[in-house]
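Comment thread on ticket #2218

A.B. wrote:
> Attaching the input chain for the structure job we discussed in standup.
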Amino acid sequence: MSAPAATDNDAQHEHHFENADSGAALTYPMQCSALRKNGFVVMKGRPCKIIDMSTSKTGKHGHAKVNYSGVDLFNGRKYEDMSPSTHNVDVPHVTRNEYQLIDISEEDYLTLMNEQGETKEDVKLLDDAEITKKIKEEFDEGKDLLITILTSMGEQGVVSHREAPLNS
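C.D. wrote:
> Ran it. Output below, let me know if you need it in another format.
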């Protein structure tokens, strides 16, 4: 009779995870002293681009401190942080892809096409952003636009655009 009790006990400790993504693959560790301006770092749980850094001298207790500030890649919010130069910080994996703009929906979702001819329709323009106005204006003028999308930590957003070369 003890065997069924053991299986009952095993069932209590069996875990079912709906989401298999641990979040660990979204970032990698880097020593704080190796960070550079215009590089990327996770600040307050958000992927950011470093806009300014400074290092203070070694204090009485031996650790130089790195002060850095960054701008969120997707909402533009500014963050500041400080860390001992020898400590590791999380750096987000960031990918940059360029797509041809096919259409803009009334809800500001973009229809994009990559070089392989596959379409993507899950990118939304930011409300009231300067880049949103420029993209809409140029698209309405009939210009053929290439849109640059950054993807990091499960989010994506439009970071720039340019007119497609005539031979594309």
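A.B. wrote:
> Thanks. Noting for the ticket: The longest helix spans residues 2-12.
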